[in-house]
Amino acid sequence: MAENIGTLFQWLIFLGVAFISILASLLLVTRKNPIHSALFLVLNFLCVAVLYILLYSQFIAIIQVVVYAGAIVMLIVFVIMLLDLEVELRSGLKFSYTKLIGGFLALFFFLGIFYAVVAKSPTGKIGSSYTSENITNNVKAVGEVLFTQYLFPFEIVSILLVVAMVGAVILSKKRA
Amino acid sequence: MKLPEIDLCLIAPEIIVAAFGFFVLLVDVFFSKRENKAYLGWISLVGIFFAGALAVTQAGSVKSGFEGMFISDGYALFFRITFLIIAFLTVLISMGYTQREGIAFGEYYALILFATLGMMLMAAGTHLVIIFLGLETMSISIYILAGMMREDKRSVEAALKYFLLGAFATGFLLYGIALIYGATGSLYLKDVASYIASKNLLRNPMLLMSLVFLTIGFGFKIASVPFHMWTPDVYEGAPTSITAFMATGVKAAGFSALVRVFFSALPGFRPDWTSIMWLIAVATMTVGNIVAISQSNIKRMLAYSSIAHAGYILVAFVAGNDLGVSGILFYLMAYAFMNIGAFTCVILLGKKGEENTLIRDYAGIGFKYPLLSAAMTIFLLSMAGIPPLGGFMAKFYVFSAAVKEKFYWLAILGVLNSAVSVYYYLRVTVLMYFREPEREITGLQFSPAAVAALVLAVIGTLYMGIFPSNVLSFAQKSIAGLM
Asked: Is residue B430 a part of any domain in this protein?
């Protein structure tokens, strides 16, 4: 009985969160004010983070909140503040052929991916999945793989980050 | 839990390149007062040379390491050498140019080294994560290098445009990789191929979709039509030395990863990708050549010509036989010499505040700067595919590979395109020798290093045209085990 209630509760959370995230992404692309869009983006990211928790992947959920809802949205807001959006706001949403073609292409890709993912169940090898019993291993498992099997990619990422930092400094520092 | 075996000898060339990149960054800090940064270029050259020497000592052995994510085989060796040659020539032509244009920063050379490192990882990675990270290391370095001239609006535009579109292309590539993982549960190229074969997933929609995404992602990096829109603007706006680096290095790296991924992870999908790539190859050649005709700026013209060259290389990719794939390697090497050479001429013909990049500016320089014009003529004729130059042999291998696989139409369209291209390459030559100059170009300063690069490029172009069999047999040996 208690288990059933638990499952029901999970379903309710899933439905609620999924609904809010779809609503947020729809509002995100239809708002005229870019700051409002950014806020809906945060809402969407948070909802997706909850979905990850429902899948017992707390690590990805935390990353989702820290990196996406935190850092990336911050970046987006910064860009919005740097750009002069008055002109954009005044002109409003206008029809253009680029948008029409872009819309069709987006729809085409969406249908393609939708079909690809839904038509057949994923065929890949299935690794150990997380259930309510072994969720404590989540972060540990990622860490272990990261520093053993994926040690080499990990080191490459460190160089990648240095390159990005050097770039940020050189493109923005004052020059004599 | 145990640490993986760490075989540093395997990645020795990469380590040298990375270490010299950091070394250049550090040395620059300690001697930040020095105005002339050419000594950092020389340090980079030493590093590139050492890395190349180490790469050559690994020749002949096939060794895989780092949990099978990295392989040092003939294919990796060929591309390591190609990238190191490209980096070497780029650093040589940069030393005078960066000083002249006021972008002489130590970071410039470090970023070239890091970009080279990324390219080398792309060619040697046998795990999609390595290939992706290599691609990003290369791309981010190039975005920064393209925007080095901050006072020049076109350079900033180039960097921003390349960055935004490149980020989208990366998104497509990652999507493709994710779908491959979803369909096979592995990111090792060999495992992907064997899993597809064992489970008979050739009509799996997820994998077909990933094929589309990978084509888009790599198609952007190699500047193929219809993912080429950024090329002319970025090539025109970026510092000319970086344009040369992009047109040769990034393109070669894109092809190295494209060939490795498609031929070793997705060989079963060959009929599918052949039909897509056929169309892309024809579109790329045609658009590149026809639009190049109407350009008035030499950097833009060379940008469109580089699009066209990506099309020729795709012809070999479609053919996909031994000659075709070794033809790709040969072509990329030959293209590196002739294209960097051509851009070196463009650099040498400019001076501070006066770039002289209009094709009109080339009128009448033939007798004023006879050696420079002769070199430029060699590179242009080589790109047009006129014997006995490297570009001719490259095109010859590419088209004969297509004919061998019975892609007659593709070969015919390729040859026709090549004929069209002769027009705009020859036009520059004709201007140089048979027109009176519209205005005097005086006070050019030929930096010795750039002249050295020019000489090396001429030697390379001639060598690959006159003794092509040496490089071709090297390329043929390199692709053993790939397919």
From this structure: yes
DSSP conformation letters of A17-74? HHHHHHHHHHHHHH-SSHHHHHHHHHHHHHHHHHHHHHTT-HHHHHHIIIIIIIIIHH
| Confidence class for position B412, pLDDT limits 50, 70, 90 | very high
Report pLDDT digits (tens) over B203-251: 888 899 999 999 999 999 999 988 999 999 999 999 999 999 999 999 9
Among all residues of chain B, which has the CA nearest to that of A113?
B209
Most A CBs within 10 Å, among B40, B109, B129, B156, to test the A interface: B129
Q: Does A163 touch chain B (CB under 8 A)?
A: yes
State the complex-level ipTM. 0.91
**Positions of CATH 1.20.120.1200 in chain A:** 1-88
pLDDT, residue A87, reads: 66
The label of the residue with tokens 């004599």 reads A176
Architecture of the A1-88 domain: Up-down Bundle (1.20)
- Taking alpha carbons only, the member of B344, B341, B348 closest to residue B365 is B348
pLDDT given for residue A132 in this prediction? 61
Provide the pLDDT for residue B425: 94
* Cβ contact A151–B66 (<8 Å): yes
pLDDT of residue B480: 84
Q: Decide if A151 and B140 are in contact by the 8 Å CB cutoff.
A: no
Nearest-Cα distance to chain B for A87, in Å, is 20
DSSP-derived secondary structure for A63-131: HIIIIIIIIIHHHHHHHHHHS--HHHHHH-----HHHHHHHHHHHHHHHHHHHHHHHS---SPP-PPP-
| Chain A neighbors of B276, CB-CB under 8 A | none
CA nearest neighbour of A142 among B1, B394, B230, B274:
B1
Number of domains composing chain B? 1
Domain containing B321 equals 8-478
SS3 B439: coil
Q: Which A positions 98-137 lie with beta carbon below 8 A of chain B?
A: 112-113, 115-117, 119-120, 122-127
